[in-house]
Write a structure and sequence with these properties.
about 550 residues; mainly alpha; about 0% strand
Length: about 550
Amino acid sequence: MASSTIARASTLMAIGTTASRVLGFVKAMVLATAIGVTASVGADSFAVGNMLPNSVYMVLIGGVLSAVLVPQIVQAMAGHDGGSAYVNKLVTIAMVFLLAITALAMALAPFLVRLYAMAWSPEQLALAVGFAYWCLPQIFFYGLFNILGEVLNAKKVFGPSSWAPVLNNIVAITGLAIYIVLFGADPDGNRGLDDWHSGQIALLAGSATLGVIAQAIILSLAWRKAGISYRPDFVWRGVGFGTLGKIAGWSLATVIVMQLGGIVTTNVASTASGKGASVAALQYAWLIFMLPYSILAFSIGTAYFTRLAEHARNNKPEDMRSDVSAALRVIGLVMTGSAAIIFITAPFIALVLMDGAKPADIAALAVVIMMYILSLTPYGMLFVIQRTYFAFNDTRTPFYFTVLQISLFVGGSLLVLAFSPVELVAAMLALSFTCATIIQVAVGLIFLRKKIGGIDGKRVFVSHVKYGIAVIPTVIAGFFMLQFSAGYIDTDNLAVAIIESMIYALILGSIYIATLWLLRSGEIAELMGQVKGKLSRR
């Protein structure tokens, strides 16, 4: 019964997230058509300006929300009012801080931009600052969206948070389409710094912000439908600032360390701006990376997280270990297969994203995608590890192995700056991230095993070995298919690239699943059983 509940919640979230991510992919395609990706000073400037709201938000409150809200609300729900009074106080506190943070960030916009792009000229910095002023109000609405969503998740209402970003993408795509009609397309990124004016900046960045506003507003309507009422409460006694501060403090420290690492790596990437794959290329590659992660790993992991918090509250260690093991195995199954498929089809994906761009620029983005995607499976496992600690209100331990990962990543980034050719900077940064993430997950699993008294390690290990074996024929088949279509990248044919990528993904996915079935993978058998059961009920 419990597993079916998780399955339903995960499926609902996955469908909504899939729709959102597909539209996000379309948005990225339209943006690439409008301002280019690689060797584009406009694309890199917009990337930094639009990145700041996320960075500032995550440093000051984003990580705290993930670690604090769900466990605390689950605990508060045991009270006589179902947690209503506590939620009112928490939401009010968060909104006040969000307003203050947004205002401060806008006042410091020039400093923040320079912090992430120290190597840029004054002219390029000025362009990025212009984008930042229009994008930074997103901080408040990102926060509002996540607060509303976390409360819904704690109430086991998972759908709206996954579907609301669909509206965000629709609004942003509409704004980009208007931009192209008014100012023309520039897929090669030839528009120079002198070719930008205030109207272009306002439309490009303003439509991005309007999309974030729309998704926050629509989620507030979901509260009413879910029967959740909100009344501002400025009497904050009883919130438990001491307990929250201890929990949030380590989470905040974790996010700060991550952002400091991001500042270093973004500065390294910015040295290639206008010369090759740089900040914008890394963001596009990350978008592809996050497609399977958000659709599959995040959906599965989030559904499990609420249950993990309940197990921790009710002191059920056996149930905790069982759910952690299941989450690690299921996420490993889907992430490993997804990584293999995306690795092979990366050139096609890059061609779709950068339709009309130079073949060399398309190839450069493909390499960055391939280097990132190697870390997909461990990154998905990391989500489970972190959320398990959060369920125990333990944010200190994740901080330690995050410091390890960031230290390795920063060290790798500095080596890239010192030794990498400029055209390979973005790809080498992505590879550095992959290596650091693998080590972080290995350390995290060791810590987690001690924390909960075991993770059914033998079963998890055997399952992942089978996933790795299944990847071998998948990649070999993909290699021969690529050889068969070796001249595709010179055709610059978007329709052909889309069709080929879909066919290849279907074939490679079938090979992966069939191999696991032959290896008698328990996870595949369980998955096929669930699918068969659903079909028979229909």
